């Protein structure tokens, strides 16, 4: 082949009638005989092909070497003429002279023609006859391979082998091998051609097919197969097809697409009729190796076939709109149409056409074509649109049946491999053949798949593109949501009449580029489930229209060919995905708005996030903080997102439930929700790694805090504000929210919090009237101080001093576990709830709060907004900055030195900036006659893992009563109680209220008695109830511990009871039951007929727990009447220092499972008005005095003989004694004329019994549930194995460790 210009191939002339062949058969480097002239001895034509060793001219002169410039300087060098074999000083013709020549060694003769013989011509039939004779290959040679034609099979024999393009082979190379008459294997460098048994005609529709297997790449070379008229590489009729190149693009060959990788086999189907037409006599195989080791490289070509196809109809499968899993086949005529661009019809190279496969199921594009296939779901089974040539191709095929209706669910799916990039590559679905017509402007009917300028072409304004461009040489399947690319919403339809493929070369410098292969097209409607969300408690179904979410600067981040998988309430992203869904409505985010969802991480990618987008916005970082980073490979935050990742980062396979207070980041409208998985780290262009799922998404508002005021609900917005100062409050607030339950009635505070809620309208103090506040309070975990405030402002006042213009204290404690100091800055209530306990409070704040001003006719105050005016300029007005002293403020204004952590200023609205100090009105405190805030205080400055997390308390059922009146004040009341407990007393009052018409709108007996007793706190009510009940017991009481009975020893005139309880007196140390007559008399008569008084003794004072115990170490009777029943764990001497006469100390005992002491306990609980409480003196007499008659004496060292439970040793066991009178009755009356309660007791039988386990007995007294009090009792009588734990805990409180040497 000579003069072959690859840039202009269209249709080549017919085959030559004869071929130039050498006269004699040669021995090729492959050691095979074949026809051909040996160019080492002759040359043809102008002898440019001569490669012999003649080195003298016709004049007998010796030739000058080509690589020297002596004696003649010249430019005919091997570098300038690489194909002319300018070696040694042999005759050659590099520059198209009439024959071979050389420069001479004679300085007087520059150059001269050489006497090289000419080769003669013979006909092609003569050559074939010489090789094949008249027989078949099997008759001629057993070593052959077959070439299948459409109507016969050619057998090409080994003897037909010749060198292709002389001097490319090297000595010693490996011969080509044939196997199974089908496989041709090349090893190392080889350029070998075979004479075909007959001339083969190449027509326009001829296809060359074979399998190609690459075992080893050649070094600095290529692999090719050629069909040629002669054995010259550059001849007039023939083409070489490069199957694999390690030298890049070879511009003088046809470079086939889908270059084969090592160890794989590719199926090649080359439309050679598009390259040339005419007859060929040779098939050639090239495995070129120009490396150092020319034996490297091995490949096999198998099953060679030459066939003809006809372009008639194309079969296409298309999906049904109504039955989305159903596909049907359509047939379209091959009516190819050129595509214009915005009316300009100059883009398409019209000399190249689509070629339909024999089966009609696939097509090939030769040349860079735009091929539009009429729309039925192009399920073109192997639609190989193979774009081989450089000229720009823009073609279309009309879709059958009027085209295809594109909806938001339409998917175009295909496989694409780009083997050489072009200026841009695109696919289109269009309703006409002008891809940028005005009528579809902005509708993106074309999608870019690759672009040389990075998608920035200004001439393709309306085209969308994939984020992840295709990687050259790699096959990739893509599913493009064409409807969503066009921005189609739910219900919108656009008809497409064409499908187009555009492969464009715009610059002449890239004329040799552009190869791509397309296959397996499908066009269908995707089954897309609606996305289900909960918006403010309402289930909402959102159409599954996935739109691309852009980056912060408008850059495309989304891989549009990656589609989110939606399954009802869950959304799964696989690979790079930036998508958003329009909500179909606009919602409003307030400070109380939360975003809750479950996040499942399957495979971590760079970033995983979620966004709430404002109307009209399709990009992140839209001027507000509304995108949230959930997980990712990077430990760094991303500036586009707010980092809400948990401290313990989410790992693959984990599920985490997010509940984000989005209202703390932004407030405003939201119209869309975005889901993102960012993958910019993956090397491959598909960016498919990474997977995560968002499910059960809820957008809701935190419940408002519901407060009743005179029976009317006030919804206090859940916008939480720091009270006192930011350092006091755990921040950021969103991480330490006070939890308002779904009813709005309970507020749970965890960790350190000083948290204010602002009333929707300030409450006028004048209108608050009695200002009685009731609420429930419970402690799950104790902090240091817990309390409730009602405030005019956000300043925590710690001084009540009318002489100064200081704010008044507006906070009360409900529990404190640290010293409040001599002058508390928070007002302690009378009842402090213990850890683990609960209590209902009723507080008359008009009595508790001092300087609670009330002004008639007061109006809601207005507040000026904070404003920076200047730095240190005199004359600053109210709420203006920046001042350094009072002198810089106007009039009587004062400079508020706030510090950098306090963001509020008294009497001003807004947030203070920087370190500015502001002028304010000091009379603001006295003028502020409105309550603006309710505040929950849970203070704890102890750090746990670096945070103040101690404390877990709940406030509930908050109610304000402004006018407290009694409905029973004008009624005479009487009722009888079997047991005069507070609960029974209140139940009787409630029954009376239910029977009284004046109480029709009231149902709270505690609040009724609060009014009737004119109480300040609820404990005043309980105290009064106890007084009424105990008043009945006094008439039946008997003080046996006075001087006349047990109080004094008549013989010694000493206070015997007091000494006895402390472990002294003759009752403890006498050798017999002498001096016990009075005890015996009380035991026999008084103790069973009277309520015995409780002795006045330090060991029995303030038995707040409602339980006591007696323990004796010695028995003076033999045999022992009361056997030892307990072991001692420890004695806290500080608790009983008056008995021990030692200020502090402790005794630790070991245990050996042998009881050493006798203990007997009794309990009456915390209700001082109960019958059990009335009989506690009787129980003490039984446990402490009557037992002495049985020999139980002498206290445990360091402790009293009997005492309140907290003053007694901690022991393993105690007998439980109970004194009861089940048939007694307390009669209660209320005289409306006097306004007082009275009571009397009808005393029944007093009996003593064993009550079993003291802990269980105490729990029953407290209602059957564990309470802090019952748990305390369990911590004093600990059971047989409880000493180690109890002693360890006790010593730990003193900073000591305990190591038990005995056994429990």
TrEMBL record:
Pfam family, one: Kringle
UniProt entry keywords in alphabetical sequence: Disulfide bond, Kringle, Signal
One Gene Ontology cellular component annotation held by this UniProt entry: extracellular space
Entry GO MF terms: endopeptidase activity; signaling receptor binding
UniProt-listed CDD domains: KR
Boundaries of every Kringle domain copy: 41-119
TM region positions: none
N-terminal signal peptide: 1-32
InterPro entries reported for this sequence: Kringle, Kringle-like, Kringle_CS, Kringle_sf, Serine_protease_kringle
The protein's name: Kringle domain-containing protein
Lineage, opening ranks: Eukaryota, Sar, Stramenopiles, Ochrophyta, Bacillariophyta
């Amino acid at each position: 082949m000579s003069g072959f210009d690859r840039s202009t191939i269209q249709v080549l002339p017919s085959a030559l009638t004869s071929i130039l062949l050498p006269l004699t058969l040669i021995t090729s480097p492959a050691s095979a005989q074949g026809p051909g002239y040996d160019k080492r001895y002759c040359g043809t034509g102008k002898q440019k092909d001569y490669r012999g060793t003649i080195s003298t001219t016709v004049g007998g002169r010796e030739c000058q070497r080509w690589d020297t410039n002596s004696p003649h300087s010249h430019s005919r060098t091997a570098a300038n003429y690489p194909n002319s074999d300018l070696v040694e000083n042999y005759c050659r013709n590099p520059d198209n002279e009439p024959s071979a020549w050389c420069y001479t060694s004679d300085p007087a003769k520059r150059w001269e023609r050489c006497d090289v013989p000419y080769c003669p011509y013979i006909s092609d039939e003569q050559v074939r006859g010489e090789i094949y004779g008249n027989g078949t290959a099997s008759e001629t040679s057993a070593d052959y391979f077959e070439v299948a034609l459409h109507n016969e099979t050619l057998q090409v024999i080994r003897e037909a082998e010749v060198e292709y393009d002389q001097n490319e082979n090297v000595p010693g190379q490996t011969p080509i091998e044939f196997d199974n008459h089908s496989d041709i294997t090349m090893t190392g460098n080889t350029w070998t051609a075979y004479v075909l048994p007959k001339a083969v005609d190449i027509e326009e529709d001829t296809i060359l097919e074979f399998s190609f297997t690459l075992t080893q790449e050649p070094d600095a070379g290529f692999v090719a197969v050629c069909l040629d008229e002669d054995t010259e590489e550059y001849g007039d009729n023939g083409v070489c097809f490069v199957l694999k190149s390690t030298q890049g693009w070879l511009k003088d060959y046809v470079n086939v697409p889908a270059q084969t990788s090592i160890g794989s086999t590719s199926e090649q189907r080359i439309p050679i009729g598009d390259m040339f037409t005419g007859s060929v006599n040779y098939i050639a195989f090239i495995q070129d190796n120009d490396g150092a080791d020319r034996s490297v490289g091995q490949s096999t070509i198998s099953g060679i076939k030459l066939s003809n196809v006809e372009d008639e109809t194309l079969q296409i499968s298309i999906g049904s709109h109504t039955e989305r899993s159903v596909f049907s086949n359509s047939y379209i005529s091959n009516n190819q149409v050129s595509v214009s661009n915005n009316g300009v019809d100059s883009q398409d190279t019209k000399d190249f056409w689509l070629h339909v496969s024999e089966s009609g199921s696939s097509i090939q594009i030769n040349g860079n074509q735009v091929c539009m296939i009429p729309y039925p779901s192009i399920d073109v089974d192997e639609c190989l649109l193979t774009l081989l040539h450089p000229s720009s191709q823009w073609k279309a095929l009309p879709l059958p049946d009027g085209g295809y209706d594109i909806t938001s669910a339409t998917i175009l799916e295909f496989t694409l491999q780009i083997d050489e990039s072009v200026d841009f590559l695109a696919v289109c679905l269009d309703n006409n053949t002008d891809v940028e017509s005005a009528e579809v402007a902005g509708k993106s009917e074309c999608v870019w798949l690759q672009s040389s300028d990075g998608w920035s072409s200004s001439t393709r304004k309306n085209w969308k593109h994939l984020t992840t461009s295709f990687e050259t040489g790699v096959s990739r399947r893509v599913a493009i949501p064409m409807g969503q690319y066009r921005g189609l919403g739910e219900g919108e339809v656009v008809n497409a009449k064409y499908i187009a493929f555009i492969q464009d070369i715009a610059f002449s410098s890239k004329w040799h580029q552009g190869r791509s292969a397309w296959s397996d097209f499908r066009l269908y409607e995707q089954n897309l489930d609606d996305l289900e969300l909960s918006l403010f408690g309402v289930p909402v179904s959102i159409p599954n229209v996935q739109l691309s979410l852009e980056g912060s600067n408008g850059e495309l981040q989304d891989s549009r060919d990656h589609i989110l998988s939606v399954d009802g309430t869950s959304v799964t992203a696989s690979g790079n995905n930036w998508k958003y869904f329009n909500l179909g409505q606009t919602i409003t985010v307030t400070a109380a708005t939360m975003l809750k969802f479950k996040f499942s991480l399957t495979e971590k990618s760079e970033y995983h996030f979620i966004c709430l987008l404002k109307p009209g916005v399709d990009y992140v970082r839209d001027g507000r903080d509304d995108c949230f980073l959930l997980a990712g490979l990077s430990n760094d935050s991303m500036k586009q997102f707010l980092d809400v990742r948990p401290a313990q980062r989410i790992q693959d396979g984990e599920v985490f439930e997010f509940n984000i207070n989005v209202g703390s980041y932004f407030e405003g409208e939201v119209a869309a929700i975005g889901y993102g998985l960012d993958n910019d780290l993956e090397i491959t262009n598909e960016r498919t790694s990474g997977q995560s799922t968002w499910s059960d998404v809820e957008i809701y508002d935190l419940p408002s805090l519901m407060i009743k005021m005179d029976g009317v609900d006030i919804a206090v917005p859940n916008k939480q504000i720091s009270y006192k100062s930011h350092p006091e409050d755990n921040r950021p607030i969103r991480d330490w929210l006070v939890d308002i339950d779904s009813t709005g009635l309970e507020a749970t505070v965890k960790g350190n919090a000083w948290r204010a809620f602002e009333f929707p309208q300030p409450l006028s103090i004048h209108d608050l009237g009695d200002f009685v506040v009731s609420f429930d309070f419970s402690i799950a975990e104790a902090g240091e101080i817990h309390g409730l405030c009602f405030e005019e402002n956000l300043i925590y006042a710690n001084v009540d001093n009318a002489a100064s213009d200081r704010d008044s204290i507006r906070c009360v404690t409900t529990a404190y576990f640290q010293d409040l100091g001599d002058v508390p800055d928070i007002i302690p209530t009378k009842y402090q709830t213990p850890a683990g306990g609960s209590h209902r409070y009723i507080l008359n704040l008009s009595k508790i709060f001092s300087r609670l001003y009330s002004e008639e006719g007061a109006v809601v105050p207005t507040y000026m907004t904070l404003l920076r005016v200047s730095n240190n300029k005199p004359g600053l007005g109210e709420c203006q900055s920046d001042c350094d002293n009072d002198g810089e403020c106007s009039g009587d204004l004062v400079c508020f030195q706030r510090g950098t952590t306090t963001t509020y200023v008294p009497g001003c609205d807004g947030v203070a900036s920087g370190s500015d100090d502001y002028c304010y009105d000091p009379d603001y405190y006295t003028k502020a006659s409105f309550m603006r805030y309710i505040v929950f205080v849970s203070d704890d400055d102890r750090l746990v893992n670096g945070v103040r997390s101690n404390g877990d308390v709940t406030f509930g059922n908050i109610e304000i009563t402004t006018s407290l009146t009694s409905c029973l004040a004008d009624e005479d009341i009487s009722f009888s109680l079997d047991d005069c407990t507070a609960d029974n007393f209140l139940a009787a009052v409630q029954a009376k209220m239910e029977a009284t018409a004046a109480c029709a709108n009231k149902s709270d007996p505690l609040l009724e008695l609060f009014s009737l007793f004119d109480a300040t706190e609820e404990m005043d009510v309980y105290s009064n109830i106890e007084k009424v009940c105990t008043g009945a017991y006094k008439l039946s009481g008997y003080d046996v511990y006075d001087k006349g009975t047990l109080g004094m020893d008549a013989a010694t005139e000493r206070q015997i009871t007091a000494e006895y309880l402390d472990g002294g007196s003759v009752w403890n140390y006498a050798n017999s039951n002498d001096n016990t007559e009075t005890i015996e008399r009380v035991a026999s008569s008084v103790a069973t007929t009277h309520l015995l008084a409780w002795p006045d003794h330090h060991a029995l004072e303030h038995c707040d727990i409602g339980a006591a115990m007696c323990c004796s170490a010695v028995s003076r009777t033999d045999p022992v009447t009361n056997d030892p029943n307990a072991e001692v764990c420890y004695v806290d001497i500080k608790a009983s220092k008056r008995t021990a006469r030692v200020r502090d100390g402790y005794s630790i005992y070991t245990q050996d499972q042998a009881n050493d002491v006798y203990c007997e306990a009794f309990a009456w609980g915390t209700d001082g008005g109960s019958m059990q409480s009335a009989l506690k003196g009787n129980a003490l007499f039984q446990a402490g005095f009557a037992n002495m008659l049985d020999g139980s004496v002498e206290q445990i060292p360091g402790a009293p003989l009997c005492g309140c439970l907290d003053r007694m040793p901690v022991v393993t066991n105690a007998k439980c004694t109970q004194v009861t009178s089940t048939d007694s009755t307390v009669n209660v009356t209320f005289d409306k004329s006097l306004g007082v309660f009275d009571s009397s007791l009808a005393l029944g039988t007093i009996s003593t019994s064993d009550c079993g386990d003291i802990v269980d007995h105490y729990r029953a007294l407290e209602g059957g549930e564990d309470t802090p009090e019952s748990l305390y009792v369990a911590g004093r009588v600990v059971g047989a194995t409880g000493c180690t734990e109890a002693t360890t805990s006790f010593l730990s409180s003193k900073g000591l460790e305990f190591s038990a040497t005995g056994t429990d």
